[in-house]
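FW: tagging you since you asked about this chain on Friday. Here's the raw sequence from the shared folder, copied in full. Didn't touch anything.
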Amino acid sequence: MNMSIIQIKGNVRYKITVDPSVWIFDDRKFLMDSFFEKQTLTEAEQHDHELDQERVIREGHTLPPTLKTEKTFEKERLVTGSFGMKLGDMFKNAEPLEQANTCEFVTEDETIAIPLSSAMNSIAHFSQNGKPLTEKGPIHVYFEDQSNVSQPIKGVKEIIIT
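HL: got it, structure written out here
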């Protein structure tokens, strides 16, 4: 089996196989910087920061980018950015059965079980500096509450919904 492929199986209507290396083209991806920033900023500080950025654009301290500049910036971001995706998007496609309540992340060394409700909001980090994760990849799983931010689940081979 290709090392970048992960199967989602178990108590699901559809067993699915996902390839995180193609998520770079998915509109649901987001920059991991924004996920990690939330760890350091309080909710109020995050809101203030967003308002400040919006105010700068409105007041004209910076020129809005032209379409050409925007496209160039987006290409540059794809080549250098670090991206993640909510795992819930993938789980919804597999359609967990009503009785499913646990998600097991199977790695080479261990199986880590968490409530399915928590797994739905977990983040799959799949790209670092514009490249697929190769060291203990293809994804690193972070919990939404960031309780495992210093020790994400690495080397996930398959995900079993039970």
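FW: The two ends are 23 Å apart (CA to CA).
HL: agreed, and The longest strand covers residues 123-128.
FW: great, closing this out.
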